[in-house]
């Protein structure tokens, strides 16, 4: 009977530590991760102005810790894929990179058949 009581007391202590730690983690997480000033819809509009006529194939929010948070968008226009990053606080385009798609890998001129 005494062993059971010790187990219950020890178990209650672990639950209190986990609960307190979870509350502390939630407090620090909510304080550091504020909602972005630029919404996803605004980031898409900005990206469309940067690459007119393209369609958005991917959208991600990247919280970068000490650096500015960004919206990462992948846009496709014809055979080009654009990677655009929009600053989540200012709405400025911080990256616009073009990557040509090579969809015909069998006829690309190399001999690795």
Decide which structural class fits the backbone: alpha+beta
Total strands: 4
The overall pLDDT average reads 75
Helical proportion, percent range = 25-40%
Strand fraction? 25-35%
Shape: globular
End-to-end span in angstroms? 74 Å
Q: Sketch the major β-sheet.
A: 4 strands, antiparallel
Radius of gyration: 24 Å
Across the major sheet, the strand order is 1-2-3-4
The low-confidence runs, each spanning 5 or more residues with pLDDT under 50, are: 1-17, 24-31
H/E element order: HHEEEE
- Structure annotation, total helices: 2
List keywords for this structure.
113 residues; alpha+beta; four-stranded antiparallel sheet; 2 helices; 4 strands
What does the model show?
The protein has a four-stranded antiparallel beta sheet with strand order 1-2-3-4. The termini are far apart. The chain has two helices and four strands; from the N terminus they run ααββββ. The model is unreliable at 1-17 and 24-31 (pLDDT under 50). Helices cover 37% and strands 28% of the residues. The protein is an alpha+beta fold and 113 residues long.
Give a quick precis of the structure.
This protein is of the alpha+beta class.
Q: Layout of helices and strands, plus pairs?
A:
Blueprint: H1 2-32, H2 40-50, E1 55-62, E2 70-77, E3 80-87, E4 93-100
Antiparallel strand pairs: 1-2, 2-3, 3-4
């Amino acid at each position: 009977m005494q062993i059971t009581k010790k187990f219950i007391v020890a178990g209650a202590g672990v639950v209190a530590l986990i609960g307190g730690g979870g509350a502390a983690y939630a407090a620090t997480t909510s304080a550091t991760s504020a909602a972005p000033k630029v919404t996803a819809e605004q980031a898409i509009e900005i990206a469309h102005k940067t690459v007119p006529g393209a369609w958005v194939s991917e959208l991600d929010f990247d919280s970068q810790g000490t650096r500015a948070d960004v919206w990462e968008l992948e846009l496709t226009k014809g055979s080009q894929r654009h990677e655009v990053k929009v600053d989540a606080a200012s709405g400025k385009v911080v990256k616009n990179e073009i990557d040509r798609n090579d969809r015909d890998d069998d006829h690309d001129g190399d001999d690795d058949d």
